[in-house]
Structure formats: structure tokens, C-alpha cells
Amino acid sequence: MAASSKVMKQKVAILGAAGYTGSELVRLLLRHPFVEIKHLSGTERTAGWSYGQVYPQFSFGSVITLDGERAATPVDALPPLCMTDDIDFSQVDTVFCCLPHATTQTIVSRILHRGTQHTPRVIDLSADFRLADVETYKHWYGTSHLAPELQTEAVYGLTEFERKAVRSARLVANPGCYPTGAQLALAPLVRAQLIALDDIIIDAKSGVTGAGRAAKEGNLFCEVTEGLHAYAVASHRHAPEIEQGLSRAAGMGNQGVIVNFTPHLIPMSRGILETIYIRCRPNVKVEDLRSCLEEAYREEAFVHVLKDPKQIPQTRHVRGSNHVVMNVFADRLSERAILVVVL
Ligand SMILES: NC(=O)C1=CN([C@@H]2O[C@H](COP(=O)(O)OP(=O)(O)OC[C@H]3O[C@@H](n4cnc5c(N)ncnc54)[C@H](OP(=O)(O)O)[C@@H]3O)[C@@H](O)[C@H]2O)C=CC1
Ligand SMILES: CC(=O)N[C@@H](CCC(=O)OP(=O)(O)O)C(=O)O
């Protein structure tokens, strides 16, 4: 895509740029013809470093993208990391927040309540603004929300379902990793009333970058390699997020649908695979599920239903591509179906 000289570039700040989500954003935004990365922030640990010092792959010249193209902006143009407090937000159009849970509430609140004429839009990648219900947040995150008024204002940023609202939102809460796959696969089927709402089992596996870059004993190479384990069984905070999305799709408000969700950590660096077991409503066939999903994503650039009904999605379908690929299969028991989704 060629950058038009008439289009004003969006001035962007990425907070928490030294983390994994921050680095993924830098990689994507360097390619974007209408974005100028003005600020990258970190803590005392990384403030003052060049981005190549934080991530060696951003050290030299132009980034060659996965498609073999040159990025729109050379990495040399990236600013060094600074402290978040040193950013002048009156000069920024969009802030991407890639900060740990809870830290985000305070910082986003400060940015959006600055009381000046110009307030940037905020796109938050943490979980702080995803759950609309204040009590549900408190129950799952173990602490009261520090900016409840923003919690109700935030638009849940699953773009395929909320494109119009995302366009005009002041604060976008980006979905969690597991909820992205689960909701993309299930919400169209729920909306079309094709599946039972009391019998949804989501078995999910994630690569280790999903846990963030901060050092944690459980994520060390020797702890995760050549092994596989479930974690947060029946207690993962993504369950209420998925339930909120599916309840909304069912027209029930923020709650009502209950899912059984079990995540696993698998020894690969990135990617997620979710196997989802569902029960069809009476007289619904797996072909109906497939048609529904195909219709839902026909015009979408990043979500794909495999054309061959027998082909099983695998992480290699999406590796490093930011796409989501799914397929749906009939179980041996006729009323059941199995969805496989990778992202
Ligand atoms: N990893 C993933 O796949 C996904 C993560 N998320 C969510 O996104 C958020 C970021 O996750 P992730 O990138 O994995 O986390 P990481 O642990 O990889 O990185 C977080 C970064 O935040 C920085 N940081 C902490 N406090 C501040 C501050 N006050 N100002 C500036 N920088 C700060 C740290 O910087 P420094 O290194 O300089 O100390 C650290 O590098 C989390 O809320 C996470 O739950 C969402 C979707 C997917
Ligand atoms: C492998 C792994 O540890 N994954 C993280 C989820 C990462 C993510 O996307 O979720 P949040 O933004 O809600 O943190 C976890 O299970 O806590």
C-alpha cells in the first residue's frame, strides 16, 4: 500500500514497548504507512535503551517483513525507550498500552482525564478494561477496579464483531489471547442459535510468549521443554471474558453462558490451538455450522475457515502471521461437533 501524501500520519506511543506485545506492535506498526511511532516507553530498567538493545532483530536499517517486503519505516527512525511519565500526551494521537494488569488502570485513567483539549485514543492490550461488570472484575482479578467509569465506557475490541464501535471509541479493550480464538469460533454459532449454551468445552494450548517476557521460574526453558501441562484448571480469568462475549452474542447481556475452559502451556514460542467441543441444537448439522462460520468471515481479511472440510488447522497455518484459522468437524455422536481454531 503506498502512503498518500495527503494522509496525516497517526502519532503513536507504545507503553510497555519492551514486552512481547509491545514488540509485536512495533513490528506491525513499522510496516504501517499511516503511522509514526513517536514514543516507546519502559521502566527504569530499559529507559534510555535503543529498541535494538531491547530486541536485536530491530537493530539494523529497514526491517524485512515476513512477506519479504521492506517496512514503511526504517528501524533507525524508532525513538529510544523513555519513561511513561516523560511522554507529552498532548502530541500523541493514539496510545497503545502493553502494560501489566492493574498498572494500566492508573495510567490510562491519567491519560484520559488530563483535562486538556486534546486527548489521545487508547488501545489497551491488558485485561483491565475487558470485563464490563465491576463485580465480575473484582471476583476474578481479586481487587476493585480503580477506574470503573472507564471500565463501562471501554469498547471490547474484537474488531470482527465491533468494527463500528471500535472506530469511534476513546478506549478500546483488546481481547485476551484465548478469548479471541474461542469467541471468533463460537460467537457466530451462538448468535445464529445453532448450538447449546450449557455444554461448551474449550481445551486450549498456548506457546510460552503468551505468559509475557518477565522472568518467571515456571516459564524457564527446562521447566517447559519436552513437556505439557494444564494450568488454572476451572479458575482461569479468561473464562468470564469468553462467557461475557458469548452471553452478548446470545442477547443475554454480560452473563448467562457458562463455559468449561482449560488452558495448557506447550513448548513452542508463540501460537495457540483451541479444540472446542459443542452440542448442536436439534436438527442442526455440522454443515450448518460450517456455512454459518463461512458467512461470518467471508469478507474478513484475518479470519479464515479452511475450504477443505477435512483439513485440520495447525499452528503452522498461522505462524507469525496474526491470522486466525478454523474448521469444524462432526463427532461420532451425531449431535456433537468439534471446532479447531489456531491463532
Ligand atoms: N503476551 C501475550 O501474548 C499477551 C499479553 N497480553 C497482555 O498485554 C499486557 C502486556 O503483556 P506482555 O507484553 O506479554 O508483558 P511483558 O511482561 O512481556 O512486558 C510488559 C512490559 O511492561 C513494562 N512496564 C511495566 N510497567 C511499566 C510502566 N509503568 N511504564 C512503561 N513500561 C512498563 C516492562 O518494561 P521493562 O522491561 O522496561 O521493565 C515490561 O517489558 C499484559 O497486560 C498482558 O496480560 C495480551 C494479549 C497477549
Ligand atoms: C501462556 C500464558 O501464560 N498465557 C497467559 C494469557 C495471556 C493473555 O493474552 O492474556 P491476558 O492479556 O489476559 O494476560 C495466561 O494464561 O495468563
Automatic annotation (TrEMBL):
<dbReference type="InterPro" id="IPR023013">
    <property type="entry name" value="AGPR_AS"/>
</dbReference>
<keyword id="KW-0521">NADP</keyword>
<dbReference type="InterPro" id="IPR000534">
    <property type="entry name" value="Semialdehyde_DH_NAD-bd"/>
</dbReference>
<protein>
    <recommendedName>
        <fullName>N-acetyl-gamma-glutamyl-phosphate reductase</fullName>
        <ecNumber>1.2.1.38</ecNumber>
    </recommendedName>
</protein>
<keyword id="KW-0560">Oxidoreductase</keyword>
<dbReference type="GO" id="GO:0051287">
    <property type="term" value="F:NAD binding"/>
</dbReference>
<keyword id="KW-0055">Arginine biosynthesis</keyword>
<feature type="active site">
    <location>
        <position position="177"/>
    </location>
</feature>
<dbReference type="InterPro" id="IPR050085">
    <property type="entry name" value="AGPR"/>
</dbReference>
<dbReference type="GO" id="GO:0006526">
    <property type="term" value="P:L-arginine biosynthetic process"/>
</dbReference>
<comment type="pathway">
    <text>Amino-acid biosynthesis; L-arginine biosynthesis; N(2)-acetyl-L-ornithine from L-glutamate: step 3/4.</text>
</comment>
<dbReference type="InterPro" id="IPR036291">
    <property type="entry name" value="NAD(P)-bd_dom_sf"/>
</dbReference>
<dbReference type="GO" id="GO:0070401">
    <property type="term" value="F:NADP+ binding"/>
</dbReference>
<keyword id="KW-0028">Amino-acid biosynthesis</keyword>
<dbReference type="InterPro" id="IPR000706">
    <property type="entry name" value="AGPR_type-1"/>
</dbReference>
<dbReference type="Pfam" id="PF01118">
    <property type="entry name" value="Semialdhyde_dh"/>
</dbReference>
<dbReference type="Pfam" id="PF22698">
    <property type="entry name" value="Semialdhyde_dhC_1"/>
</dbReference>
<feature type="domain" description="Semialdehyde dehydrogenase NAD-binding">
    <location>
        <begin position="11"/>
        <end position="169"/>
    </location>
</feature>
<dbReference type="GO" id="GO:0003942">
    <property type="term" value="F:N-acetyl-gamma-glutamyl-phosphate reductase activity"/>
</dbReference>
<dbReference type="InterPro" id="IPR058924">
    <property type="entry name" value="AGPR_dimerisation_dom"/>
</dbReference>
